[in-house]
Design brief:
It is found in: Membrane. It holds the Pfam family Sulfate_transp. One of its GO terms (cellular component) is membrane. This is STAS domain-containing protein. The protein has about 750 residues and is of the alpha/beta class. Helix content is about 55%, strand content about 5%. It contains 30 helices and ten strands. Helix 7 packs across helix 14. It is elongated and about 110 Å long. The protein starts with a helix and ends with a helix.
């Protein structure tokens, strides 16, 4: 009874009656998980959440010196920058300080990158400003700017934290570097354009949140109305660049004092702010009018300490209002940080864990909401500064945090007199470094012209529309380019070149494209075509549903062009010709001489060295290709496969009827039909389309010629012979040379 049920089940699922070659099974795949120690893996996962535990026990005085210097150096830059970036986000300056403190203090506990400095950044601040404007427009008078910013930080933090905990951080790899550079360049230009009105004291005369091109035009129109703020803003900006380039020149002239000049240069932000603050106090304090206003715009009161600590106001209505902005805000939050962390990891010889970095960003922003911090992420300028300052461990962030606390509790009275034009100068000076240089853009063009177009599109859309649209454009274009590259693979038809290397008298064959235009092959080298009736084709992508029809089209078209039809259709009556393949027109002038030089197709060799996957649609298209080529040749066509890397690819090909030496069996008509054929329908199909009758079956001696044998000789006289490739699949070959030799054996 059991045997009968087993046979009935095999008949039901179409299990082959003949023995099939041994291929990988799902049991083989699952077997590799057999020895996994779940408890140990869980402990390793939990310990990886706190990377500082791996280095804190080895912390020493030498590391501490480097961290203190780097932490103080970054702190001097972070304090004025954070207040400036809060201004971009349309928030009070203290919120920038809150985000700075939480970012550098918490990140060090979860970081896998020692160089990265977390805090407010220009691009994220611009996005926060856009979100605040949109939510307040749709919910007037319901939420304040800080409540919206803190709510955004919490939601984005939770999303990024979830991505990190689930270890799915690889999704960010779908956005290439040119796309990231494009929207960052566009955002930097937008930020700088939005700060120039403040630099000249004309912010009240135009909308600095409009499209970038409009802000630039309106700024130029209103320059004639510049106020006394321009004296502080323009002077500060020029001084910043003068100090920067002066110390760069001095460092080149006196290399022995390069480090001294470096530290003097990085203090320029703090130095300029101090000078401008003193100048603003001396000028504005005596000139206060009767209404309490000053002749220039100053920062005014900054609350001392953490005045807004507590549970954030986050309700369902706010979450609904923020929902449309979460995707873009999350992308900005994690992309910039991961790009910076990877960059400095490569520069300084260590490897980051992207998933753990996402956890660090998520925890930082989630906990930061208790301190009313708005979204924080990695800063390129401060990370570069921290790296150059000689940071040794992520603990440098704690020193930077102490610096921010000192500023919050001891310097808030002095912050009152900081001129807003001076903060605009600080912002412009910082974001200009985010703009890709012409050399950088040209490198994109040299490497991949299509990616350069994506970069350019992201820049232009960000400038002429918004940062949201710029990000969406770059992401969608990048994914579209990826799909196009998969769907339209550039396969190559190959020929043979024989190499003889120096004193090595044994020549060897290599296979290169028959068309050498644009390839690495010397144009003067003659590429020999395969034997008559043999086609050698190299695939450059996995054979999956988006591109499998392209493979079919390429092979069939090439065969029709370079081989002749096996049956002369000119003498076949019209009534017997297929409706969709009538053959040559009787009125057409056929070049019989050229056609006579061609051979009938006998074998196709497919180089699978670049094929990592093949799906059901791919197998079906290979079956269809074989059918079309055999109808064209009017005889069986051998399919040889070289360099199959994956056992799952081998399994799929065997299931499709490829690779085996059982040449009398039926060739599959459909691998997995969308609309299944009944048994009666399948039986009624013409033999021409279902079963290929191989009358000229090779002998066992001939068949052995297409099987690769290896001979290994030990120190003894014994010789062992064993096949490298299974004898049950003689049409699967170890390399391309053996596959072509096998294909040419019977030609």
């Amino acid at each position: 009874m059991a045997q009968r049920l087993r046979m009935w089940g095999k008949t039901l699922i179409g299990y082959p009656e003949q023995p099939i070659p041994r291929t990988i099974t799902t049991r083989d795949y699952l077997y590799r998980f057999k020895n996994i120690n779940v408890k140990r893996s869980a402990l390793e996962y939990l310990s990886s959440l706190l990377p500082f535990l791996k280095w804190i026990s080895r912390y020493n005085f030498g590391w501490a010196i480097g961290d203190i210097i780097a932490g103080l150096t970054v702190g001097l830059v972070l304090v004025p920058q954070s207040m400036s970036y809060a201004k971009i986000a349309t928030l009070a300056p203290e919120y920038g300080l809150y985000a700075s403190f939480v970012g550098v203090s918490i990140y060090c506990l979860f970081a896998t990158a020692k160089d990265v400095s977390i805090g407010p950044v220009a691009v994220m601040s611009l996005q926060v400003a856009a979100v605040i404007k949109d939510v307040q427009k749709s919910h007037p008078g319901v939420y304040t700017g800080p409540e919206i910013a803190v709510g955004l930080a919490f939601i984005c933090g939770m999303v990024v934290l979830g991505i990190g905990l689930l270890r799915i951080g690889r999704i960010i790899e779908f956005i290439p570097a040119p796309a990231v550079s494009g929207f960052m360049t566009g955002s930097a230009i937008s930020i700088a354009a939005g700060q120039f009105p403040g630099l000249f004291g004309i912010s009240s005369r135009l909308d600095t949140r409009a499209a970038t091109y409009k802000v630039i035009l309106d700024t130029l129109k209103n320059l004639k109305y510049s106020t006394k703020d321009a004296a502080f803003g323009v002077t500060g900006l020029l001084a910043l660049y003068a100090i920067k380039f002066s110390f760069i020149h001095l460092a080149k002239r006196f290399p022995c004092r390069e480090r001294l000049f470096f530290f003097l240069s990085i203090a320029r932000n703090a130095f300029i702010i101090v000078v401008l603050t003193v100048a603003a106090y001396l000028y504005a304090h005596p000139r206060k009018d009767s209404e309490g206003d000053y002749p220039i715009s100053v920062l005014k009161t900054v609350p001392r300490g953490f005045k807004h600590v507590g549970r954030p106001r986050i309700d369902t209505e706010l979450i609904s209002a923020l929902a449309p902005h979460i995707p873009v805000s999350t992308i900005v939050l994690l992309l910039e940080h991961i790009a910076i962390a990877k960059s400095f990891g490569r520069l300084n010889g260590y490897k980051i864990n992207p998933n753990q970095e996402l956890i660090a960003i998520g925890v930082t922003n989630t906990i930061g909401t208790l301190f009313s911090a708005y979204p924080a992420t990695g800063s390129f300028s401060r990370s570069a500064l921290q790296s150059k300052s000689g940071v040794r461990t992520p603990a440098a962030g704690l020193i930077t945090g102490v610096t921010v606390i000192i500023a919050l509790y001891g310097l808030t009275d002095a912050f009152f007199w900081i001129p807003n034009a001076g903060l605009s100068a600080i912002i412009i000076h910082a974001v200009v470094d985010l703009v890709a240089s012409p050399a950088h853009a040209f490198m994109f063009w040299r490497i991949a012209p299509l990616e350069y177009i994506i970069w350019l599109a992201a820049v232009l859309v960000t400038i002429f529309s918004s940062i949201d649209n710029g990000i969406y454009t770059s992401v969608i274009a990048s994914v579209a380019l990826l799909l196009i590259r998969i769907a339209i693979p550039e396969g190559q038809f190959l020929g043979r070149v024989t190499l003889v290397a120096g004193d090595n008298k044994q020549p060897r064959d290599v296979y290169v494209p028959l068309s050498i235009n644009g390839s690495l092959v010397n144009p003067r080298v003659k590429v020999e075509a395969p034997a008559d009736g043999v086609i050698v084709y190299r695939l450059k992508e996995s054979v999956i549903f988006p591109n499998s029809s392209s493979v079919n089209t390429a092979l069939v078209n090439y065969a029709r062009e370079h081989t002749k039809r096996g049956k002369d259709m000119t003498n076949v009556p019209l009534s017997e010709q297929p409706w969709n393949d009538p053959g040559p027109s009787r009125s057409a002038q056929v070049d019989e001489t050229a056609d006579a030089k061609k051979s009938v197709l006998r074998a196709v060799v497919l180089d699978f060295s670049a094929v990592a996957h093949i799906d059901t649609t791919g197998v079906q298209n290979l079956i269809d290709t074989r059918k079309e080529l055999e109808r064209w040749a009017d005889q069986p066509v051998e399919f040889h496969f070289a360099s199959i890397l994956s056992p799952w690819v081998r399994r799929a090909l065997v299931a499709g009827g490829f690779g085996t030496d059982d040449r009398g069996r039926s060739v599959p008509y459909e691998a997995a039909p969308v609309v299944p054929l009944s048994a009666s329908q399948d039986a009624g199909l013409s033999d021409e389309y279902v079963t290929i009758a191989f009358n000229d079956q090779p002998s066992e001696d001939d068949t052995s010629k297409i099987r690769e044998d290896i001979k290994s000789t030990s120190s003894s006289t014994a010789t062992l012979e064993a096949p490298i490739v299974s004898r049950s699949t003689p049409y699967f070959h170890l390399d391309l040379c053996s596959a072509v030799r096998a294909a040419e054996t019977f030609v």
